[in-house]
Design goal:
Layout: E1 4-9, E2 13-20, E3 23-30, H1 51-79, E4 84-89, H2 93-103, E5 109-115, H3 121-135
Parallel strand pairs: 1-4, 4-5
Antiparallel strand pairs: 1-2, 2-3
Length: 136
Amino acid sequence: MAMDVGLWIDHKKAVIVRLDDKGEEIQQVESGVGRRVRYRGATHPKTPYSSQYQQGDDQLDNQFTEHLNKFYEKVISHVRDADAVLILGPGEAKAEFEKRLTQRRVRVRIAAIETAGKMTVRQIAAKVRDFFHERK
């Protein structure tokens, strides 16, 4: 049974639309992070030019990246068995996710990667249906 997946992704969430012979299934995965995350124990110095400021900033960046990596792994678990994947999104996350798929050697064909701004779940599902319908 063939299964196509459309994925709208940014750093905050992923909307996954799975299409197969039985119909359509929509899932959402939340990353749990905003643009930057404050972690307990992170330094917050008074002067932005101190080395302590740089060290605290690096720590936040590393923790943010680690959190995103866990998020991408969750999303991969939802698309791993797809025949083809359409990746949509507004920013860097779609390219980061593609890179993660390649690094993890996930055997899924990427049908296309398209820039798409904020969309409702219904709009995402419609775009995915239209994309894969046109390809058949």
